[in-house]
User: Fold this.
Amino acid sequence: MAMQTNLSKKDKMTIAIVLFIALVFVISWFLIRPTISAALNIEDKIEQERLTEKEYKEKILYLTSAEALYGKAVDDLNESTADYYEMMDSSEIDRMVTSYVLNSGLFSESLIIKMPEDTVDESPYLYATGSDTAAPSSDTAADTADSDGLLAPYSNARYNTTSTKSSGVKCVSLTLVVTGSRKACQALIDDICTKKAVRITGFSWEKVDMIEEIDPVTGVTSLRDPGTARLRIDVNLYMADVADYESAVSEAVNDAVAEAEG
Assistant:
């Protein structure tokens, strides 16, 4: 028995149109959805690429700033250690000091060398007024401002340093006894004072033995002043072995930049 409805012809037409529209929508949705999803994925990828590009640009900027800051630190390190002696063993120091004494017109009676076991640990001279311990100059302040404050932590750490333990510098203690004219001995002291990598820690004039002379006629023995002086001097000799940090960091930065740009 067929189902009968009370729908009018107009209602049936309306239902047919709605169903048709729904069918078109469903078909269109399944056809268009992949395209829409692909477009959304492309947009997400574009946004991700933009973020990645921004990140790489920031990395390059930070690397450039870090390279400049590191370059200044390396320059300061090289400048502060330029006057130090290269690393030597005790035999090399012995030859250098003995040659220096002889060239000064003196005779080396003895030389005691105490080699260091670790880096030197010394405090700055309390009343020093040099650039190493003075407050930052106006030029330094200008440099700090120009670099947007990047140098501030470095400068503060540098000027507030109270020990040389981490400097890599080693100190050799020398005790030297020389004889010769008093003028030559004094000239030796004066010359050592001009050497930035050597510091006199003490010195003293010691008694020189008199020379016995026997008169060939009378046989009488007398003592004569030899006319020489004996100087005992204690010094600290500073050595440093500074690596080529500048070349190492430049290579590392170039590799990092190339990787970021690639």
In short: The first helix runs from residue 9 to 81. The two ends are 77 Å apart (CA to CA). The chain is about 50% helix and 20% strand.
